Each structure stands twice: as structure tokens, then as C-alpha cells.
Amino acid sequence: MAAPGSRHASVHAEHVGSLLRPAYLLDARARHRAGELSDEELREVEDRAALDAIAVQRSAGIGVYTDGEVRRETWMAGIMESVGGTVSAPSQYPPTWHRAGSTPPPEETSLSYAAVNGKVYRKNARTSVEAAFMAEHSPGPYKITMISSSMGAQLWRPGLSAAAYPTPADLVADLVRLQIEEITDLVNQGARWLQLDSLAYLLVLDDDYRGSRGMDDVPPSVILESTLAADRAMIAAARAASRDITIGMHICRGNNRSAWLSAGSYEPVAERLFGTMDVDRFLLEYDTERAGGFEPLRFVRPGVTVVLGLVSSKTPVLESQDDLRRRIDEAARYVPAENLALSPQCGFASTERGNLLTVDEERRKLELVTRTAQQVWG
User: Which end of the chain is more exposed for a tag (fewer CB within 10 A), N or C?
Assistant: First the structure.
């Protein structure tokens, strides 16, 4: 394993990746889908939105930049939008979203899904475009975020996919191969900070959620080991491509229009995930009791940074700085304080419609993260 910590271990104020899309970008995307705007014209609008996203982060003092994921329809773009060999298809198991004790109307949280109907291939180089833009325009270190292909089983449908991939595991293996190619290309392009958004672990953390995905008959231990193996393969490829790379992994419990999917402590995966995964940073949801306590952090390898997602991206209400500092102190019982950092629990716009707050409220959230980090870590 690589020596954990990396040259970016001093970054104590981070955000997960996505930022709210401005209205002019949403309008442009709608016009593009309607055939009223060319690819080139849309790219110009996306570039403008990415510059605006960088400006928001810079004004807030964030330590590592993204383009706000403004070129993506959802955070799942790496599979749903960038992989060929698929057709549009409804979800086999439509997710149930939850918001403050209620269920938002389906039309508000609806997403576009795909299913594999042939051998998969890399259809476009979306992350390459993002990396090239950030290399030119980012005022500081930048990271490229991507969904982990360990989640690719959701694209498998018996009637559509079995001819090309007899089992979901066969499909995931091929998707991992494609993502390794993508990661290698990004590193060769100059990217030196990558983040895997890996949510298949939720199937282990939450029995009810696993059942809702039609996987009651699959042992959690099997899901855990297959997910670990896929993520390890991609991380090893990044390490092989460059010795000078920072690798993060983000885990949350769902994020769509300020709603969530699941709950559960990290305890069922902690020893195998936190104790063995060769990442430099874990970005972990911790803004509510849905994520349980900090005790699972006792398994985190020495030197690895834990980015505590204590600030909610789902609500405009600002957290108490005293409460944030108290919770950081609690986490420091399990991970040395110098190996902790602070962030929102997830992105502000995992889907292009975004969470239920404004850009100004988003900026205040990011400013809260950086002010608190400065007070705690200097």
C-alpha cells in the first residue's frame, strides 16, 4: 500500500464535488435536449458555469476545487451517461426517497436510468474534458470525482443484459476494466487527485435498503467483498499510474433534492473498508444520526485523513460552530485530530436540479466549513 496521508493531508476544508447549477445552465441543457442548442454552444455555457463554481469555492476558501460537476446530469454520469452499450430503461427497483419524515413526490426525485444491452465501451471522455478545464482554470489543487463501477450491477437486466453478461458480476468486471482505462488516462493527462463515490456499501449498512433493491437473498458479506475487490482494483491502477496521487473515497446515504435513501452505521463495513482500503482520504456522511457514531473510525489506518461530513448540504440552516467543534473532538477519540478534516456530508447537486437551497446559502455552508477548519486546524 502507498504511504497514506499524501501531500494534500493538510487540506482540512473540502467539499464532496457537486455544486448547484445556475438557472442559465439548466435552461441551456433543456434547449440542448430540445435540439435548439448545439454541442459547442452548450459547452460554452458549461464552461461559464464551471468558472462560476470555481469562484464560489474560491470565495469560500475551499482547499481543493472541482468544476461543480456542472457538465453532468447526475453524479452517476460516469456510468449512466459516459458508457455505451446501454439503452434508456426505468430502474428495476425504483428507489424510495425520504425527506424529514416524508416521501417527496416521485416526479421531484425521478432520475434517468440505463440498462446494458450489449458489450460496454467508453462512449465519451467527460472526465477528460473536466480535467483539462480544471488544469487551465483552477486556482489550486483540483480533484476529479467519479462513481465507482462497483455500483454497475444496477445496469444489469435479465432480459437485456444476459446475452452479453451472464451475471451482474460479469458486467461489473467489464465496467471496472473501463474505469481503470479512464483513471489511467486521467493520470497521464495530469490529474493528481481522484475521488471514488462508492455507495454499494449501503447494501451492507442497511438491511431494509438491501431488500428494496431485490437483494434479500445475497449475503451482505458477499456484497462487501465484491465491492471491496472492485474498488481496490481501480485504486491500485491509480497508484500504478502515478506515485504522486491523492485518492479519496466518498460514502453517503443518498442525496437527491434534499432527500436520502438509507441509514445505518459504518460498523458492518468498517474493519474491512477502513482498515484495508488504500485511499488517502475517506469523505464520510456524518451530519445526522442516520450515519451512527464515530466508533467505526477506530479501524481507520494510521495516517489516512477522515473528512467528516458534519455540515448538511440538504438544508440551508447553518450548523452551530460550537457543535461542529464538539463533534470533531468526539471523532478525535478514534482518529488523531491532525488526520481529520471537515466537509458537507454530500454534494449540493447530486442531480442537476439540486438540493433545496440557494447559491448564497450554499456559499455560506462552504464558508462555515472553512471558518471552522481554520479555527480547529489553523
Answer: C
* Residue 165: inside a domain: yes
pLDDT tens digits, 245-282? 999 999 999 999 999 999 999 999 999 999 999 999 99
Q: Is there a domain that residue 15 lies in?
A: no
- The model's pLDDT over 119-154, given as tens digits with 9 standing for 90+, comes to 999 998 899 999 999 999 999 999 999 999 999 999
Give the range of the structural domain holding residue 32, as residue numbers without chain letter.
Answer: 23-377
> Distance between CA 47 and CA 41 in Å, rounded?
10
- Residue 293 pLDDT: 98
Per the CB < 8 A criterion, the answer to whether 316 and 335 are in contact is no
pLDDT at 4: 45
* Any domain includes 270: yes
User: What CA–CA distance (Å, rounded) separates 123 from 21?
Assistant: 24
Q: What are the cell numbers at 189?
A: 493527462
Residue 364 lies in a domain: yes
Q: How many CB atoms lie within 10 A of CB 378?
A: 7
C-alpha dihedral over 43, 125, 145, 357, to 10 degrees?
Answer: 30
Query: Average per-residue pLDDT in the chain?
Result: 95
Structural domain count of the chain: 1
* Three cell numbers written together for 315: 438544508
State yes or no: pLDDT of 6 exceeds 60.
no
Q: Which CATH number belongs to the domain containing residue 371 in this structure?
A: 3.20.20.210
Q: What is the dihedral of CA 3, 307, 188, 68, to 10 degrees?
A: -170
pLDDT band at 102 (very low <50, low <70, confident <90, very high): confident
Tell me, yes or no, if the pTM score tops 0.85. Answer: yes
Count of residues making up the chain: 378
Residue 55 exposure: Cα atoms within 13 Å on the Cβ side: 9
